[in-house]
Structures are given as C-alpha cells and as structure tokens.
C-alpha cells in the first residue's frame, strides 16, 4: 500500500517537473479585471483570433474579478515583481482608478502611439482617467455604463430623474435597492449620480480643478441621501442587486449595463426588464487595455491590443457578440456593422441618452472625498 | 415512550437534513438551470448548456482541476512533513515559549491575507518561486499550517504516556516507540488535519493568483470570480466538480485509516 | 518526553518555513500599520483612524464570530455526542452520512448558496410557505447578521464535529459503560464524562474555526448588505478604494489581536489547571 502511494507520488512529481519545464515559449499572458464574461471574451473570441493570425502564439487569460478590487489585485502583482527585469504579465485589463494609479507609479508603458488603431479612440476617457493623465498608456476595451434597471410589469411609469426617483421610493418603500458604497461599483455609481444631481458643481467634480473645500457644501445632499436610504433595500454587491431582482424582492436598482445583459442572456433575469438613465445622468467608465512597463512580450502585446481595438473586432466582438458599448469612437464601429445589430445595442438607452446622461466618474480626489463623506455622514 | 423518542429523533434528523441539504439542493438546481427568475419558484427551463461552457476545450477546466488536485496532494505532504515534528515538540516536548509558538502558527489564518499577499508575492518573485508549482504548494502549506500544527499538537498530547513507557520498558528504542505506539495513536487526528489541509488547498484563491498565475492556474480561480459576480450556474458546476476530489480524498483517508491503522491499534 | 534541544530541533522546520514565507512578508504589513504617513516616522495614526471609522465594525465582528463559535460548539458536541452515545442504528447511520457535507463546499460558494436560500423570496421561505406553515406575506429576509451567523455555523460545524466525534470515538468506553450501568442519563454522561475528556480537541477546533471566520471576506461581502459589517470588508475597502494599506494593516492587526487574546486565554487556562493545555 505504502509503496503504491510512493510510486504514485513519484510519477506525479515527474509530471509536475515536466509541465513547468515544457512551458511553451510563445505565450501571451493576459490578466483581466472585470467580470467573467470579459475573460470569456478573450478565451473564446479574441484569443483564438489572435492565435490564428499569429501562428506559434498562445493566449492565456486569467480573470481577477470586478471593480477596483479586481484591478487592485493586478496592480499588486505588478508591484510585487517590480524588482524583476521581465514581468510575467503582458496585457492587463483594468479600471480607470487603478489605471491612473498604475501610470503614476510607473507600472505601465506608453504604447498607443505605436499601434495603428491608436488614433481611433479620442473620447476624454481615453486620455484622462479620473483626473490622471493616462494619454498614450491606455486604449479603451469597451465602455461600461451604469443605469437603473426596472421591471416594467410592476413599474409602468418609471421615474425619469433623481427627483422623481426620490418621490417614487417614498411611495414604494423597499422596492428600490442598491448596494451602498463599500460593496461594488454600481452602488458607488448611484451615489455619484446622486451627488451630480444634488451637490452642485457637477462639472467641477468631473473635470476639476480639485478643491478640498468643496465638500463643505455637501451636507444637504448627504443628509437627503441618508433620508432616501430609509426607504431603500440594501443589496449585497453589484451582483446582489441583480440577484434580488432575479427573485423579485426589489423591482428597481442601479446596475452595470453589460452585467445586466449577461444576466438576461444566462437566464437569471426576466428578459422583459428594462434600463433607463435618469436625469441628470449616471456615471460609466471604460475598461482599459494596458501593457505593463516590463512586459516580457511587449511587442506581441501591442499586436494583441491593435487587433482588439480594430473597428472589425470592436464591431463583431464587443458590440455584436457581447453587447458592450464600443471602446473606440462609435463612428468607426458603426460603419463596420449592420444597422439591426447597432440598434439592438441601444434598445433601452439611446445614443442621444448616452451622450447626454452618460457621465464620467469624478476626479480622483473628489471621488475619495465623496466616498469618505458617505462613510462618515450617510452610513453611520 | 420509545415510539415517542423515535419520532423526536426522526423529526430532529429531518430538520438537520433540511438545514444541510436545503442550501445544497439550491446548488444542484442552479447547476442545471438555464432560465430561472421571478416569479418562478423552480427553473423555467433546464439543460446542460453551462456544463458545456465550463468544459469547453478553451476553458482548460480539466487542466485546472488536475493542477488543483496535484497541488492539494503535495500541500498535504508538505504540511504533514513539517507539522508532525512540530506537533511532537509542542505536544510532547519540553519546549520553551510553547504558547508563543502556538500563537505564532495562528498568524497565517488570523491575519487577514488581503494585505499580506503582495509582500509574499514579492518575496516569491525574488526567490524565483513565482509561477512554479513549488511556490503554490508552499503558499498553500503556509495557509494550512495552523490546522496541521494545532491539530497535530492536540493529537500527540492526547496519546497515553503509559503505553509509550510500557513499550520503552520492554527495550524499544525511542524511534521504535514513536513508530509503533505514538504515531499510530495520533494518526486519526493527523489524518483529520490532512483532510482539512487538502480542502484549504483545493479552495485557495488569493495565494494561487499571486504566486501561481499565469503559469499555474487552478479551479478556484474560475470559481471565485464566477461566484462573487453571481454567475450561479458556473459557480455551482465548478463547486460540484470540486466535490469529487474532496469527497474522494476523505473516503481514501478513511479507508486507509480503517485498513492500516485500526488493525495496528487493535493488536 | 523529548528534551528541550530535541523539541527545538523538531519544531525548527515549521518555524523556518513560517518565518521566511509568512512572518517576513508580514513584517512589511506591520511597518505599514505603525508608520505615520503625515508626520513621517512611527505612530499610531493608522490605528486611531481605523478605530474612529470602524470601531462599530470591530465590535460587530467580535460579536458575530463569538456567537457563531458558541453555536458551533454546542451543535458539534450534540452531533459528536449522539454519534458516541446514540443507540438507534438507523439514526446513527443517517447522521454519520449527513453532517459532513458542508465541509466540502468552499466559503465563497456557501455564501452564494445562503444568499439564494435565506433571501426573502429565497428557497427556504418558498418551501415553508408552500407547505402552508407560513403566510407568504410574513416571509422575511435573513440576509443580515443572522445570515452571516447561519452561514458560518453551517460551514464550520462539520469541521469541529468531525474533530470532536473522532476524539470521542477514541475514548475509553469503560467509564461510559459503568456510568450507564449505574443508570445515568445520556445527557449527564455526555456533559459529565465525555465532553471533559475531549475538551482539548473541542477547544482547538473552536479556536481554529474562530480564526477562520475572522478572516473570511466573501461571506460578509455576499450576505450582509447592512452596516455595520465585518472587518475584512473594511480592509478590502481601504485597499481597493483608497490604496490605504496603513489603515488596512492596522485593521488586520486588530483582527489578529482579537484572535490572539482568545487563544492566549485558552492556553493560560490549561497551564493554570496544572495539566498541559493540549
């Protein structure tokens, strides 16, 4: 018996040693923050496409999870190996906040000028991430937007603005749910939308300049939010909001648009549910492609991102297959797509809506102030 | 009276079964649910589409599972290898600062790992252990050390000293006493700790990410993100797959215990 | 009995492994926790801030984890006790196959299961209302502190019960049989004879569970939507939102202190009673 086990282990050890030594030479390592379907996107679509065009290369992708938490993990992994000459991560997909921090800390390399698609993304968010200049370091993979999801069978006339939402929640206590601020970005986005609506100086919050005194004017908005919270159901996380909609415990709540569509596609949400963007708007953000400063395969990484941000791939992969808003400028993508697919993307939220009411997140330091003010004045 | 007692027992067991299997039933249902939303109390449609998704060749599920099991087995071996001597010293030895040592071994579990992993990764990178199986096994061993050391200590200190002395009086060398008396008596506890260490390794996420990725990927890397973002079908299926090695390992240990150890203990 | 020197040699590999691969990296965390970013140098600034913002969460964590530990202890003793003293063969067989299953479900999945099970329109309430035992309108959600406790108890009880049942099975049956022949009730035997003899194993199991529950992130994150919440959530929040390792590590240190105090009391207790604690 003991002998058998020893043999078994010995052969396992040989296999172990063998696999690590026989690691293929040309592997492009992609580490992606964000939700599982972003990993699936690379695994099932983009990766195979790249491998087909670049024989001898294999794309390997690992996901680290949604929100800043997932991207923070990636950043820590880069910091941990910053003493090495060649890093084991070639392409990263990260949130705005963390992309800004990574640029500031010198963890990324400038590459956008070197790729052919570099000029196709000209929106502000391709250059500035929450107030940090990231021009040249990032290309948007897709734009993600938050919106209010609701059940039209129960809510025939959904509130069209934050004011109406306030009134509606007072009449229907507990029917609106969101996840506060500690537990996922959709709740943070809702809070930000609230501040844009009621704290004043919304433009300054988004575009600067930063003024540490501004937060003195927020007391009323925060007190109102605290009163508003009396009538809402708190949900555990971004997925928690969708989860409660799945079971009909709430009929309305802020969600990420791409996550909402995934839940519908996977049969976890009623396909009749709809989205709306309330006045004056809610924030969204792109996920960025970036290349770590000492990526071992930087050249292949550039090729990979070039492919990923080409109009054809953005049209076929991002819009058609995955229902995301394109990362590069819309006009380049629209021309590569049939009209029906294009229109389907904007069923609930029209392009005009998106242009008028799709906001960026606030400047980094304001963002910190808002979150800390919420912690101190709303949740306590 | 007896009938009444039987009824009470039956009701209690039924409640326990409900408490344990209620949530697990949920897992089973989600693993085959293709559409399930309000107001339906059970899925509107069933199917294996998500199983196909988990097992699609690009997903590398089988490779990840193989890695997970292999790493878990080696983690068990590594942690027993250091925990048995340590447990012997803590349970039977004249160790100075014994309490301090025991408190020290609590650290890897008691200090939430969130803030520590980056530093662990930094050290592993400098040692060239990142991206290797050895690195992942070591980081799992550290996580499991508290279980293996504390339980081994308890197991060794519970061994009846008189039996050891009797063997020693008959002229057995200290090592023979250890091999024939102490170890077999402590073995049930050690095996229990092996099971826990195996399970910890099989479920570990953060350490694997920092130390293993991108070269070594395991099943929980998929499980963790899927579960956190509410991808119930994928998470349920992954958890079910992980049940196979978990339960298998426990049955293996129990069989091994029954056949080898109990025989020796009896003689 | 091993000599001092032999003991130190035997424990050395484990300590070296721990020191190199955990204590050394951990020391960076402690440096972060105790450094004062504003003034430079050392200070307790991070602890003051952590306490100011999260003292309620610290207390909440302590209560939740202690309560869960106590319930886990009671249920494990009940399960182990019945497995040792029970007479009904069918019930024994059922219990033995039943109680272990949650052991194999990872924490993150346990949290997911409980979230869909304990919710207002979750499976538990659905089952209870469909049997007619409860009015559907009376259904409430357990997704708050109760949900955390239920999940912890569900997931950790099998762990302690497995250890305790193992220790009980290894006991010398003669005293138990003697007491039984004298007509003692089984509960008396369990509490008076069996439990004291497995006290060490029970305490070790409970302390290990306590430690594990202290450091789990996914359960409070996925189940508890309310404030206050558990310390691990605050740690994750400090790091992810503000990259504030100072306060996060201070919170980690507080967490360890809460564990160490409990473990230390237990270890002292054993010494005072004259025996070795384990």
From TrEMBL, chain A:
Pfam family, one: SBP_bac_8
SUPFAM superfamilies on file: Periplasmic binding protein-like II
Signal peptide: 1-24
Keywords noted in UniProt: Periplasm, Signal
Protein name: Extracellular solute-binding protein
Organism: Stappia taiwanensis
Phylogenetic classification of the source organism: Bacteria, Pseudomonadati, Pseudomonadota, Alphaproteobacteria, Hyphomicrobiales
TrEMBL record, chain B:
Compartments, record wording: Cell inner membrane; Cell membrane
InterPro entries per record: MetI-like (IPR000515), MetI-like_sf (IPR035906)
Regions that span the bilayer: 7-33, 69-90, 102-125, 137-159, 180-202, 232-253
Record membrane topology: Multi-pass membrane protein
Keywords: Cell inner membrane, Cell membrane, Membrane, Transmembrane, Transmembrane helix, Transport
One example of a Gene Ontology biological process annotation: transmembrane transport
One CC-aspect GO term: plasma membrane
Transmembrane helix keyword on record: yes
Domain ABC transmembrane type-1: 65-253
Family statement: Belongs to the binding-protein-dependent transport system permease family.
PANTHER family listed in its UniProt record: INNER MEMBRANE ABC TRANSPORTER PERMEASE PROTEIN YDCV
Protein name: ABC transporter permease subunit
TrEMBL record, chain C:
Location of the protein in the cell: Cell membrane
Domain ABC transmembrane type-1: start-end pairs: 58-266
One Pfam family this sequence matches: BPD_transp_1
GO terms for biological process, alphabetical: transmembrane transport
Topological category with respect to the lipid bilayer: Multi-pass membrane protein
UniProt keyword annotation of Cell wall biogenesis/degradation present: no
Superkingdom in the source lineage: Bacteria
Residues that span the membrane, as ranges: 7-34, 58-85, 97-114, 145-168, 189-212, 245-267
Keywords (A to Z) from UniProt: Cell membrane, Membrane, Transmembrane, Transmembrane helix, Transport
Coiled-coil features, chain-numbered ranges: none
GO cellular component: plasma membrane
InterPro entries per UniProt: MetI-like, MetI-like_sf
Entry's family note: Belongs to the binding-protein-dependent transport system permease family. CysTW subfamily.
Protein name: Sugar ABC transporter permease
Organism, as annotated: Stappia taiwanensis
């Amino acid at each position: 018996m003991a002998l058998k086990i020893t043999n078994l282990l010995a052969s396992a050890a040989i296999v172990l040693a063998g696999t690590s030594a026989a690691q293929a030479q040309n592997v492009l390592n992609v580490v992606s923050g964000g939700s599982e379907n972003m990993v699936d996107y690379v695994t099932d679509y983009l990766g195979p496409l790249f491998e087909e065009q670049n024989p001898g290369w294999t794309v390997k992708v690992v996901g680290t999870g949604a929100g800043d938490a997932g991207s923070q993990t990636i950043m820590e992994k880069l910091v941990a190996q910053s003493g090495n000459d060649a890093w084991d991560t070639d392409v990263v997909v990260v949130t705005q906040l963390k992309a800004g921090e990574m640029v500031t800390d010198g963890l990324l390399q400038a590459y956008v000028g070197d790729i052919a698609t570099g000029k196709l993304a000209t929106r502000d968010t391709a250059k500035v991430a929450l107030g940090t200049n990231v021009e040249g370091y990032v290309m948007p993979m897709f734009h993600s937007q938050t919106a209010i999801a609701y059940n039209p069978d129960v809510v025939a006339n959904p509130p069209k603005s934050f004011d109406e939402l306030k009134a509606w929640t007072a009449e229907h206590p507990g029917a609106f749910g969101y996840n506060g601020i500690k537990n996922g970005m959709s709740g943070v986005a809702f809070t930000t939308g609230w501040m844009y609506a009621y704290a004043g100086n919304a433009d300054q919050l988004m575009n600067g300049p930063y003024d540490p005194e501004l937060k003195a004017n927020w007391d009323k908005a925060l007190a109102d939010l605290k009163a508003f919270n009396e009538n809402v159901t708190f949900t555990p996380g971004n997925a928690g909001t969708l989860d409660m909609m799945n079971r009909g415990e709430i009929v309305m709540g802020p969600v990420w648009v791409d996550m909402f569509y995934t839940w519908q596609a996977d049969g976890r949400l009623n396909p009749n549910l709809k989205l709306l963007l309330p006045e004056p708007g809610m924030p969204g953000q792109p996920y960025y492609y970036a290349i770590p400063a000492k990526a071992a395969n930087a050249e292949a990484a550039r090729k990979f991102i070039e492919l990923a941000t080409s109009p054809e791939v953005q049209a076929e992969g991002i819009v058609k297959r995955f229902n995301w808003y394109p990362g590069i400028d819309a006009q380049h993508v629209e021309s590569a797509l049939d009209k029906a697919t294009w229109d389907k993307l904007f069923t609930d939220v029209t392009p005009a809506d998106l242009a008028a009411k799709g906001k960026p997140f606030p400047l980094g330091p304001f963002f910190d102030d808002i979150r800390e003010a919420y912690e101190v004045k709303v949740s306590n | 009276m007896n009938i009444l007692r039987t009824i009470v027992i039956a009701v209690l067991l039924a409640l326990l079964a409900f408490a344990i299997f209620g949530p697990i039933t949920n897992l089973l249902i989600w693993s085959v649910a293709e559409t399930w939303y309000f107001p339906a109390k059970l899925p509107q449609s069933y199917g294996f589409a998500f199983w196909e998704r988990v097992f699609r060749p690009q997903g590398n599920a089988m490779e990840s599972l193989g890695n997970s099991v292999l790493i878990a087995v080696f983690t068990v071996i590594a942690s027993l290898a250091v925990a048995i001597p340590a447990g012997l010293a803590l349970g039977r030895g004249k160790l100075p600062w014994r309490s301090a040592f025991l408190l020290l071994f609590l650290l890897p579990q008691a200090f939430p790992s969130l803030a520590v992993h980056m530093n662990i990764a930094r050290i592993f990178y400098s040692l060239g252990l990142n991206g290797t199986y050895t690195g992942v096994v070591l980081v799992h061993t550290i996580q499991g050390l508290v279980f293996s050391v504390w339980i081994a200590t308890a197991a060794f200190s519970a061994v009846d000293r008189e039996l050891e002395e009797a063997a020693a009086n008959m002229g057995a060398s200290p090592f023979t006493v250890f091999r024939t008396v102490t170890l077999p008596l402590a073995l049930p506890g050690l095996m229990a700790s092996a099971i826990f260490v195996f399970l910890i390794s099989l479920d570990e996420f953060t350490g694997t990410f920092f130390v293993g990725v991108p070269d070594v990927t395991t099943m929980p890397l998929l499980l963790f993100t899927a579960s956190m973002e509410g991808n119930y079908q994928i998470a349920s299926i992954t958890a079910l797959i992980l049940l196979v090695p978990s339960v298998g390992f426990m049955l293996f240990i129990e069989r091994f215990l029954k056949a080898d150890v109990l025989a020796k203990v009896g003689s | 009995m091993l000599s001092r020197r032999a003991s130190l040699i035997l424990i050395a590999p484990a300590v070296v492994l721990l020191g190199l691969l955990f204590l050394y990296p951990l020391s960076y965390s402690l440096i972060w926790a105790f450094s004062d970013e504003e003034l430079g140098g050392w200070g307790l600034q991070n602890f003051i801030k952590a306490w100011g913002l999260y003292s309620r969460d610290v207390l909440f964590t302590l209560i939740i984890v202690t309560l869960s530990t106590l319930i886990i202890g009671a249920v494990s003793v009940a399960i182990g006790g019945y497995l040792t003293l029970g007479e009904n063969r069918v019930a024994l067989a059922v219990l033995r196959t039943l109680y272990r299953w949650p052991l194999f479900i990872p924490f993150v999945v346990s949290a997911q299961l409980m979230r869909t099970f304990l919710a207002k329109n979750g499976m538990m309430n659905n089952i209870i209302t469909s049997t007619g035992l409860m009015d559907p309108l009376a259904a409430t959600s357990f997704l708050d502190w109760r949900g955390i406790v239920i999940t912890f108890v569900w997931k950790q009880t099998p762990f302690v019960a497995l250890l305790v049942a193992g220790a009980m099975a290894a006991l010398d049956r003669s005293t138990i049989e003697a007491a039984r022949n004298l007509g003692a009730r089984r509960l008396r035997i369990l509490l008076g004879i069996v439990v004291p003899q497995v006290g060490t194993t029970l305490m070790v199991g409970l302390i290990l569970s306590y430690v594990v529950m202290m450091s789990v992130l996914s359960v409070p994150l996925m189940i508890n939507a309310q404030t206050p919440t558990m310390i691990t959530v605050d740690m994750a929040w400090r790091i992810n939102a503000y990259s504030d390792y100072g306060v996060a590590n201070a919170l980690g240190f507080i967490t360890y202190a809460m564990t160490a105090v409990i473990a230390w009391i237990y270890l002292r207790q054993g010494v005072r009673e004259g025996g070795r604690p384990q």
